Amino acid sequence: MLNSDLQNDFDSLRPGDSTEAGASRRTALKVALGVGYAAATLPIAAQTAITTSAEGLKAGPVKYTVNGFDVPAYVAAPAGKTGLPVILVLQEIFGVHEYIADTCRRFAKLGYLAIAPELYARQGDPRSYTDIPKLQADIVSKVSDAQVLADLDGALAFAAANGGDAAKAGITGFCWGGRFVWLYAATGKVKAGVAWYGRLVGQPSELTPKHPIDVAAALQAPVLGLYGGKDQGIPLDTIDKMKSSLATGTPAAKASQFVVYPEAGHAFHADYRPSYVKSAADDGWQRAVAWFKANGVV
Predict the structure, then answer these.
(1) 97 catalytic, yes or no?
(2) Cα angle value 109/119/50 (rounded, 5°)
(3) Residue 144 has pLDDT above 90, yes or no
(4) What is the band of 127 on the pLDDT scale with cuts at 50, 70, 90?
(5) Does the annotation mark 231 as catalytic?
(6) Which percentage of the chain shows pLDDT scores above 70?
(7) Taking a C-beta distance cutoff of 8 angstroms, is the pair 65, 6 a contact?
(8) Catalytic residue among 97, 102, 175, 271
(9) How many CB atoms lie within 10 A of CB 159?
């Protein structure tokens, strides 16, 4: 359950705020959030990494409280605007680093309040890890689906209290976060989702009792799945299985769609990594924006 005492510094974030107090707030929250590229992603491909300006935006790290824990998050929204449609932006395995923050700013430039919560802040800090298997073992494997879903509820509540309209909310996520797009689309709390190469099947466990294939037929919001034909971690036959399950489900399930890019592998939208495929990333982004608009997230 969301603690009714939402803790945040969003009101203190102002475009061009260079005061000592403002800088101190941002520094403290950046330490908690880890904005900047995660160590495991370095070195970045500087020639392709996209940087979106915060000019005209109210953007930066914040926090909100869920079940007694202050969840760090990055938020971006058009400055001075209220009643904004909301996009929940879900991290890769590396946490909320600069690429995810930039994605929030891209949505904000289109008129959205975009919020990216650090979804395993309770378990540890992913910034210092250079070894992905160790990151998986030490932190990611200890995160429960229940924790993530509660934190997403909290992010929506934060957005509603800070200029967003939770009745016009969508969700998008990449890789690790892409799996949760499907799960959250089954809760009835968003109007649409866009999942970027999120895993669809898996073995149930105490922490992860259901996977997207298990909730596909019960979706309450249509999801657009954007996947790579060369993705070695997500076989194409699992997409076929997902399509079959969606076809037997709710109207939202039946309205869900997949786009598979034959030329792309995993993480093709991640412009700071060698996996980036500009043609697929650009087309996927255009489709994502159109999908949200077509489904009332506008």
Answers:
(1) no
(2) 35
(3) yes
(4) confident
(5) yes
(6) 85
(7) yes
(8) 175
(9) 27
